[in-house]
Each structure stands twice: as structure tokens, then as C-alpha cells.
Design brief:
Length: about 160
Amino acid sequence: MKFYDFSAKKINQQEISMSNYKGKVVLVVNTASKCGLTPQFKELEELYQGYKESGFEIIGFPCNQFAKQDSGSNEEIQEFCQINYGVTFTMFGKIDVNGKNAHPLYKYLKENSKSILGKEIKWNFTKFLIDQDGNIVKRYAPTVSPLKIKADIDMIIK
């Protein structure tokens, strides 16, 4: 299996295949609306605006598994992201990233990336950088600022 073999439901429940992102650099992020790291939405949007014309996408996956910091409905989460951070990148519906109900995409990302903290997602805003061929380039800890990922994006954007 590769990144492109998975699909997920956007926040509006429309099923989207990851194959739609072929040829693009993608940053996959598990998000939360009520977390100390929530202000990363601002930097994520800034990153997206700076690179989207170069074939860069950010896809956010709300998750309520860490201290119940995203307990709202998909509609409430979308409204929060747009009103408070002007998010225009694609947000998917709320999922689990760990445990028996973890979304298959996240099972794949965890199994096929390296982290000094182990395979499980430890907190909100863990990030995975995917290249144009669907390969996982790097996994980033939740505390890594999205803007610090620019150098890695620059190295793989064609």
C-alpha cells in the first residue's frame, strides 16, 4: 500500500482519494481546536498560501483523542478554523489516529515513518511530509513549527 491507495471523507463528508494529490507535495496534520498548539493553524495557512501555487497541499484531520481537545462537530470545527485562522487548506472529517479505530491512512503513516518517540501519535499537530510520488519524506513532532518545515519543502518541490 502507498499513500495514494487511501481515501478519507472531507469535513463535508465527500469521499476523497489521496490519489487526487498525485504529483503534489502534501503535509498531513492531525489537528485540534482547543489545544495549546492550535495557533499552528495560522502558520499552516501561511505555509499553504506560500506554496500552493507550486503544487503544495495541506490536509488536516481533526482528532479528539488527546485530552478531548476537538469535541465539536465537523461543522463546528470547520467554522472555528475559518473564522479564527482563515483556514483555506483542505480539512477532513474528525478521525482517530491511534487505537483499534485509527483511520487506515494514519495506520499506514505511523507504520511507514520514523519517530524517536515510537510509532503512535503522541499529540495533536503531528505532521507528515509526503513527496510528489506519495513517499513519506519526514515525520515531525507536534511542537515543530510549520514554518520550520519550509526548508524540507523547498528541497522536494519541483
